[in-house]
Design a protein that fits this description.
Distance between the termini: 24 Å
Strand content: under 5%
Number of domains: 2
Order of helices and strands: HHHHHHHHHHHHHHHHHHHHH
Largest sheet: none
Oligomer: single chain
Length: about 500
């Protein structure tokens, strides 16, 4: 592995992050001046100065290292892992300048970048415009992918960018070349964001809040610039049904595979409903019905309230968006468990949603079905077919089983940390599943007064979930191997 290759690529990815912070802070200054709001203006100005200085340094460094770039998959892994680690601290700067302590600032930045939406800020409406805007920008930017946006800006045709693209948790190719794939993804993402924002404005949401909410919705993030989020908006907007329906539709859209969106955008309408998408919608329907029944039977809600709450919260959970229209603190344990299952499953592959993903779940049950049939049916009569449009061999099945084993192991270990800190098992499982699935729904565990070890556990879960665990394991393995070799060399 070449250190220069890693460093050169790292300067470009971090330059994208710093430029994003610079653009956001400048935008917040313009909005503050235009609206005549002076609260937090100093935070925006100081942030823009810091971001400008860092951007200049990174731009100079990247210019001097133009001839260097990643050439292997392991180099790409290190670039992605280091980018996300360093960005978590760098993106925390505005929160720290606005008054949050260090750990809470990092927590908020990680929650934004990973598109999770868990927050330690209780009254966001009282915070500076920069913070309210930055949280939504973080989710839009982070869920699209730091690497993806960097590739769209800095990569040239013919650059070996596939490694970086895959290392950040994506494998689907939407066009002939990777560069065209990245640009198509960005175009789809931007179009949906604009449409979503327009519908929110028509519903009666303030333009600034609508844009912020649209970015969070498409990113399946869950941050809101308004205290109480959709729970508060339902009493403010003049068209709650339109806002409600728009949010559900675009949460679902955010959880669809980008390949399906590409088919829609290129006129291949018959191919839009892929096998994975059909399974995802079927799971959404089943879980929605079960959650509605849970609200009816265990929550003793009227039918219309149960329908409204059950459908919205199920879609919010399975798309790993994290919006809430009512508090989940006092929900029945059955409702919490159903929403936990939804957050663990998550959306489609190559989407902004988290979780283990529907494709993996489908392959998991299909392979179990094959194993059972092999025992029941006569030898040689079982024909293994393609599952959900994916050709399956033993290697693919093993990788999926390994990922799911890692996922549930981390889920159990981090849940144990919260239980040991005094929280109920169901609430602990819910909160960790929300963090690991990058969902953002909360039953009240996540707050500023939460013990330090719980905040760290949730930060780990969010970062693990966003990059789908494996890159972190590879990077950790490489670090341990390097330390082992250094130890051997020192004591030869």
């Amino acid at each position: 592995m070449s250190t220069l290759n890693v460093f050169a690529s790292l300067t470009r990815t971090l330059l994208t992050v710093s430029l994003t912070l610079l653009a956001t802070s400048v935008a917040s200054i313009i909005i503050s001046v235009f609206e005549g709001i002076h609260q937090g203006l100093s935070v925006s100005i100081l942030t823009s100065i810091i971001a400008a200085v860092v951007s200049l340094f990174l731009w100079i460094a990247s210019r001097r290292l133009t001839e260097y770039g990643i050439t292997t998959y392991i180099e790409a892994i290190y670039v992605v892992v280091l980018t996300w680690l360093i960005s978590s601290f760098f993106c925390a700067i505005p929160f720290k300048l606005a008054g949050l302590d260090f750990l809470d600032s990092v927590f908020e930045a990680v929650s934004g970048l990973t598109g999770t939406g868990l927050t330690v800020i209780s009254n966001i409406s009282a915070w500076p415009i920069l913070i309210r805007l930055w949280r939504s920008v973080l989710q839009w930017f982070g869920e699209m992918g730091i690497i993806v946006i960097t590739l769209a800006i800095f990569s040239k045709p013919g650059s070996p960018i596939m490694y970086l693209y895959v290392a950040e948790g994506r494998e689907e190719r939407l066009s002939v070349t990777m560069l065209r794939t990245v640009k198509l993804m960005l175009r789809i993402y931007l179009v949906y964001t604009i449409i979503c924002a327009m519908l929110y404005i028509i519903s009666g949401v303030d333009a600034f809040d609508a844009i912020c909410l649209a970015m969070s919705t498409i990113a399946t993030g869950g941050f809101s610039p308004i205290t109480g989020g959709f729970q508060a908006l339902r009493h403010i907007v003049h068209s709650w049904p339109l806002l409600y329906a728009s949010c559900i539709v675009f949460m679902l859209i955010g959880a669809f595979n980008f390949r399906d969106h590409a088919r829609l955008f290129t006129g291949r309408f018959r191919e839009f409903f892929s096998p994975e998408l059909k399974l995802f919608l079927a799971i959404c329907s089943v879980l929605s019905v079960l959650t509605v029944l849970s609200y009816l039977y265990y929550g003793h809600k009227p039918l219309l309230d149960a329908l409204e709450l059950g459908v919205f919260h199920t879609i919010s959970a399975i798309t790993t968006t994290g919006f809430q229209i009512a508090s989940l603190c006092k929900c029945s344990d059955m409702t919490k468990l159903l929403l936990t299952i939804a957050m663990i499953i998550g959306g489609c592959t190559c989407s902004t949603a988290g979780g283990i993903k529907v494709l993996r779940l489908g392959v998991f049950f299909k392979s179990l079905s094959w194993n059972i049939q092999e025992v029941i049916k006569p030898r040689g009569t079982l024909i293994r077919r393609v599952a959900l449009g994916m050709k399956l061999d033993l290697e693919n099945i093993v990788r999926i089983f390994q990922f799911m084993l890692l996922y549930f192991t981390i889920l159990i270990v981090l849940t144990a940390v919260l239980v040991a800190s005094g929280y109920k098992l169901v609430d602990s499982l819910f909160e960790v599943a929300s963090a690991l699935g990058c969902a953002g729904l909360s039953v009240g565990v996540t707050r500023m007064t939460m013990p330090i070890q719980c905040k760290i556990a949730l930060i780990i879960a969010m970062l693990m979930g966003r990059l789908e665990i494996v890159p972190w394991m590879i990077a950790l393995g490489g670090l341990i191997e390097g330390m082992r070799r250094a130890w051997k060399s020192a004591f030869k």
